[in-house]
Amino acid sequence: MSKLYIVPTPIGNLDDMTFRAIRVLKEADLILAEDTRTSGKLLKHFEISTHMHSHHMHNEHKTVENLIARLKGGETIALISDAGTPAISDPGFLLTRACVENGIEVDCLPGATAFVPALVNSGLPNDKFIFEGFLPDKKGRQTRYLALAEETRTMILYVSPHKLLKTLAEFIQYFGADRPVSVSREISKLHEETIRGTAEEVLKHFEAKPPKGEIVVVVGGKILKWESSRAWKKIYQLSKSIILIKRFGSNKIKNTKIIMKGRITNKTIKRIDL
Predict the structure, then answer these.
(1) Predicted TM-score (pTM) of this structure
(2) CA distance 53 to 99
(3) Average pLDDT rounded to a whole number, residues 212-227
(4) CA-closest candidate to residue 60, choices 30, 98, 25, 27
């Protein structure tokens, strides 16, 4: 039965390759690779001899129709990128969408991707976050920053080493010098490191030590005004605290558990028991 497999590959450490990924790549009729030279080294290491075709951002628009025809003909195709999970800031979306539209089964294997370890290592809130990938180089860049300046969730971006200093300076301009930032580079590789601090502190670090390698940047979301005051900040950090309130029209103080979800209406805080 024909199927498109989306196969993650290691982002640095070859030990992160899964047994299932190796089996799928060996059994597939064809492997689509972002760069056959880069992927060729990986396949050779794991003794995978399946034939490869090049599939990248410059040719994927032209090749989708032919690949759909081959899948409909009963072939099994595996898609890989240079590193990580295909279609995440890499080629793969167009082919996946075409398969869905044509009723062809798609199976994305779990595996390596750069932004998850970067987010977890950052120490920033990860219960809610947004993935921005690469920001536009010129057109639309300022518009994105203006929108992100109001974003309250943790933000994840991919940044090229030669653009990191510019990007950190833009963080200071649009988000403020005190916005928390975490920069992870060379994840899973020998020289892996994560630098945490304010936007200003992280910029100074990389001005003194020019960045190299693959980089993921994690940025804290905007703190709302009600979270900024001393009392509200305690409530925000300890959301399950017991709050004693006085209801309008009542002289009784009731001991009530409240899970904070924004601002309190029709109620007056009498005392905070933390």
Answers:
(1) 0.78
(2) 18
(3) 87
(4) 98
Judge: domain 3-108, CATH 3.40.1010.10: yes
Distance CA 255, CA 214 (A): 52
Domain ranges across the chain: 3-108, 115-219, 225-273
Q: Assess contact for 115 and 178: CB atoms under 8 A.
A: no
Helix (H, G, I), strand (E, B) or coil at 83: coil
Tokens of 195: 């630098």
How much is the pLDDT for 225?
67
Could you give the CA distance from residue 122 to residue 63 in angstroms, rounded to a whole number? Answer: 39
pLDDT of residue 29: 97
Check residue 91 and give its pLDDT: 87
Residue reference for tokens 């003909």 = 73
Distances from the Cα of 29 to the Cα of 25, 67, 75, 195, angstroms: 9, 12, 6, 43
Closest-CA residue to 167 (of 243, 219, 94, 228): 219
pLDDT at position 260 is 43
- CA dist 218 and 118 (Å) reads 7
- Cβ–Cβ < 8 Å for 191, 257: no
Q: Which helix (H) or strand (E) holds 216?
A: strand 215-219
What pLDDT, in 10s, does the model give residues 168-180?
Answer: 999 999 999 999 9
Q: Which residues are 180's β-sheet partners?
A: 198
122: tokens are 């950052």
Amino acid sitting at position 256: T
Question: Has residue 14 got a pLDDT over 70?
Answer: yes
Which fold does the domain 115-219 belong to in CATH?
3.30.950
How does pLDDT run across 38-81, given as a tens digit for each residue? 999 999 999 999 999 999 888 888 999 999 999 999 999 999 99
Q: How many CB atoms lie within 10 A of CB 211?
A: 20
Measured at the CA of 26, the angle between CA 22 and CA 32, to 5 degrees, comes to: 90
